[in-house]
Design brief:
14% strand; alpha+beta; two-stranded antiparallel ribbon
């Protein structure tokens, strides 16, 4: 999978010795290294769906989004018109 390691650097020890506990606690977490395993490389990931399959599923969502955006634009226009009439 991967490997995570954390170390406490010289800054954390010296900050704690100077009486700056908040700085020391932040510095303790400053050095975190994460190495990913090669299994997360795109060449090792098998696609589950084709681009056409995804397009077919997403098409109704895009249509609904277009409808909502048009409705929002119409409502904004009506609001601007109503505010213009009242002024």
């Amino acid at each position: 999978m991967g490997e995570v390691s954390a170390t406490q650097g010289k800054r954390a020890r010296s900050a704690g010795a100077c009486g700056l506990p908040s700085l020391a606690s932040r510095a303790e977490l400053a050095q975190v290294t994460r190495r990913m395993a090669p299994t997360y490389c795109p060449q090792h990931i098998t696609p589950r769906y084709t681009e056409e399959q995804v397009r077919a599923v997403v098409a109704p969502l895009r249509e609904r989004l277009a409808q909502l955006e048009a409705e929002q634009a119409a409502l904004k226009a009506r609001l601007a018109e109503a505010q213009g009439d009242g002024a």
